[in-house]
Design goal:
Layout lengths: L1 E2 L3 E2 L3 H4 L9 E6 L7 H9 L5 E6 L6 H4 L1 H21 L22
Parallel strand pairs: 3-4
Antiparallel strand pairs: 1-2
Length: about 110
Amino acid sequence: MTKHYGWAKRPMLHRFGAIDPHVPVTFIYGSKSWIDSAPAYELQARRADSYVDVQIVNGAGHHVYADAAPAFNALLSAISDMVEEGDKDDGDGAEGDGKEKDERPANGSRG
């Protein structure tokens, strides 16, 4: 992922265009992280017609989930709720292709 002193070997900025613009994206950074959040803001500007959110968690470093677990968990819960609400708004999630929606258990296994 990185090459010599933390410079990205394959920067996300150059590869992000391959992601469907209908896919919502949220970037989560710690305010004290060594990872630069500028590319996320640039992607947000480049994809003005897409949902791109950038969240900065105050006081957290690179490991936001460990450094600020309550804030991180609250963000993930809000993102999950938003995605779930979006799925409801989209109907059956099949976009009219006649396929049934994947009904996996919450743990992701196929049963």
